[in-house]
Design brief:
With 290 residues, the protein is mainly alpha-helical. It has two domains: 105 residues; 182 residues, Fic-like fold (Orthogonal Bundle). The chain has 13 helices and no strands. The protein is globular, with a radius of gyration of 19 Å.
Amino acid sequence: MNMTDEEEKMLELMSELEGYTRLGEPCKKEKIDIWKAAIGLQQTDGLLPSAYLIETAKQNIDGYITFSEVKARLDDYYKTRTARSEGRVEEADKVAARIAEIISEKAFNFSMSGYILLHKKLFAGIYNFAGEIRDYNITKAEWILGGDTVHYADTDDIRTLLWQEFEEEKAFKYKGLTRKEIAEHIAKFISGLWKIHPFGEGNTRTTAVFAIKYMRTLGFDVTNDLFAEHSWYFRNALVRANYNDLKNNIYATNEYLDRFFDNLILGEKNVLKNREMHVAAEHKAQEKRE
């Protein structure tokens, strides 16, 4: 399967940090992994960061500048660049820097308000609705669904559904579960949270960062490599976990999302391929069985 120009560019950017990992001191590895995840997560919205961000990230990894200085440099850099085509590159750079900083922090607020505040921290100054619950209904054409959309929460139900998700998770008891059962439950919780899609944009990146932070509070030293290398798979798996097309025998399935979380939490080596999730591939498989 040939890579797109965007995928080749992302691979090139990631390879720079990958080489930096091999040359860097062991104490820098965590920060390198965090930056790779922050950059990789921009793929969930089809965004590519700039080479300037990579160079700035390297200086942060080496300890020459703080995260605050990274963000200040990006602000100054984009004040001098007004080309409209760079708008989403600016978004990718600034959001990646914010994600890296937030993942690096130990503090975490597991609550509905904390989830909403996280969106504001990530997208303030980028979206005028950062940290605000959408007041309109949305659809999103998905490649994985052949252009169809998941049915996201109605705007009138968003706050109630978010409250229910958090209250149910707070009350859930993990004691006595196997690690496999724990991974499946976390995947289901994150899937339910994502399906609400409470914001106009930035839902997947917000949910991914929230998931990383939450799993760390549960004691899982989750690797960020999966979010660095398979963030688009993560998004597509969330789509398939929340999509039904019964007339065509397509049913919501957690199979693909469980593979991702089994790799993330259990260290399994499941192969993660986007094309296997495409509804067209499932249609072909059904035709062969018939």
